[in-house]
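Note to self: keep these together.
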Amino acid sequence: MAFMAGWLRRIFSHPIFEDEEKTRVAQILNSFLWSAISILLVIVVVRLILWAENGYIPLLILTGVILVLGVVQVLIRLGHVRGASIFLVGALWVAMTYQAWQADGVRDIAAIAYLVIILLAGLLLGWREGFIVGLVSISTLWFFAFQEQQGLRMKHMDAPLNIARDLTVIFILAGTLIYLLINSLNRTLYDARLELKERLRTEKKLQRQTDYLTALNETALGLLNRSELEPLLESILTRACDLLDTGHGLIELVLPDFSALQQVVGHGVLSKYNGVLTPKNEGVTGSVWASGQPLVVQDYRSWDKGLPEFINAGFNAVMGVPLKVGQEVIGVLAISLVEEERIFTREQVDLMERFAALASLAIDNARLYELTQKEIRERGVVEIQLRASEERFRKVFQASPVAIIISSLQDGLVIDANDAYWKLTGFDPQKSVGHTVVELGIWDSEAERRSFVERLNRERSIYNPEYRFVNKVGESISTLAFYELVKLNDKDSVLSMFHDITEQKNARESLQNSEARTRAILASIPDMIFEISKDGTFLDFMASAEITPIMSPSQFLGRNIKELFPPVIAAQTFFALERALATDQLHAFEYGLPPGEETQFFEARITAITSESAIIMVRDISQRKYVQGEREKLIKELEDKNSELERFTYTVSHDLKSPLITIKGFLGFLEQDAASGNTTRLKTDIQRIADATDKMQLLLSELLELSRIGRLTNPYQHIKFEELVTEITELLYGRLHEKNIQVLVQPDLPVIYGDRRRLLEVLQNLVDNAAKFTGNQPNPQIEIGQNGFEGEMPVLYVKDNGVGIAPIHQERIFGLFNKLDATSDGTGIGLALVKRIIEVHGGRIWVQSEAGKGATFFFTLPVGPES
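Structure:
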């Protein structure tokens, strides 16, 4: 299919030749041929189907015409365009003439086809050939007319439909030729207009380039004649703006350290940015500097690197060109247009590139000139400074407190020395100058001095931090000695300098002894001692015999508190440090490590040493904190016990009083019953006294059980909560079955850790209460399960759909002997027992309920010893 499609495209496509006229004729001929072939094929097919006429001659003629058109198409493809045109016109004329001869002569429709042939000849071959074909066609028509006039040809009229059909074909062919003719004329006119516009544009371009080159030449001559940089840059920018007919431009030069571009001169709205720095890759100039290539932004407002201040200035188009010396960019020349309709042309960009090349040379020449002038000025200044320096050196030499002596290198001859040297050594200047250092006794022997000279020649300078000698007075002097190899009057000499540190040395030894005593005292203190700067940097450290630092001194000395401690402790330290430095008073604070857990506690005391540093003394107070915490815990526990004892005492005294009153009352009734002989009532009163006694016994038993919780315990173990639930449901099966209560147990309940017997009591009380208070619920239900975690402890629950508990009673139900329903069985101590057991295990219990909507008791239990 692809091959067939390509083949069809080649057949129907217009042939193209090097000769434009030949191509034009071939295109017209190709369009006409395919139009004519299509129309004639349709006519042939229609005639074959309908067979509307007698005879086959018209069909043969049409078929012949189609073959002729095909041959002409082949000739065109072979490049014989004119020959194909002549052949086509001749063949069509002969075919139409033969058709008219065989048919109706001058009355045949074929005679009208002469018009199409004449137009085709004029369009393909030219007006002369078209004129000739027209004369021959007119002559043939007159010939046919003469034959008919003389009776040599019979008149014959075709059917109207046939005439209309043939006229339609002729009109279509004629219209096609007229369209091709008009299209050809329009194309010729259009090409002529394009050529004229191109010529005008070329002439205008040449004129503009001439003007640019003239201006460029004048500008180059003017720039190269300037030697001062600032006027040169002003002139360059003025010329550039004049060349592009705008008033807005700037020049930025690269700073000596290549860190940024700096605007040196600007025109128009850009003048206010003189001195502004532009980093590389920022804006137009920064991008040009980075790439080393010109950059043209025709729509600056929509450019993604556009700077807001230049966008607000109303720039429309911006062009930047690099100022280069060799491959190095030394600056950027930028020009801006503010008019909406103006943009930069390719010629203007090329012009600016050439202009920038000349401007770069001029700027480089001006820079070299300025550097030369600067160097000349600097040399003059250096000479003046050198003379002044010599004078100052002489003054400093004499006035310096440092002892200085100058001697020759070769023989050690003393050339000069200052007053400090004569005073320090005790030598007489009148008797010393002109003598050698060996003669003066400064060196013990010439060999020793020679060894010193060889070392000085190698090292050029020698420093001795501890040079000792005895002066002429007999005093032992300690000095810092400096020896330099210098040239004086082109001769090698030795400049020796001695700084008297005798007093400092003695003071330092005393200070070292004092510091050793201080360190011995500090070493016996159980605190770690740090020296810290004002900004929080550790400067020094003294270890403690009792506290080990969390890291070695090499890891924290020189580092900041913020790097080593959590933010909370660092903030505390900085606050105390600032207060200590500001008030010159001791400030202390406590902190724990690690933050959030605080397993170890410290006390830090900060006192200022200077205005820039302080000492921090850190003491471990973990033991003290532990004792304080234990004391507070015991106090709190004792207070809780006392409160609980008070409540317990009140409850017991209140609830045990009721059975006693009952017993006492009925004892009076017994006496009356015995006196009256009423044995029936006597038995009833005795039973009531027995019931009151049993109730008191039950209360006392449960109180005893409650008191044992936390004191008498069974071994703790890991218990599957599902096993406890199963055991309790079996234990309470009678009550549950009696009330037809459905127990729902959530699967995959956790493993808990605790006293199995006590935990069974918890579950038994909760499930028994839920079964007891189902009320009139037709479908009583108890649900046991887990509802997430609280910390590391699972939250377990027992839920029922019974009578519920009003919010005002939800705290009260966990008290001793508190019963919301006085008619219910039990003592009211069950939930108090549950609460106590759960709290002993480290958990807590609470209830969520509304009256009439059931109750849910939530409680937490540990899963292991660690929780």
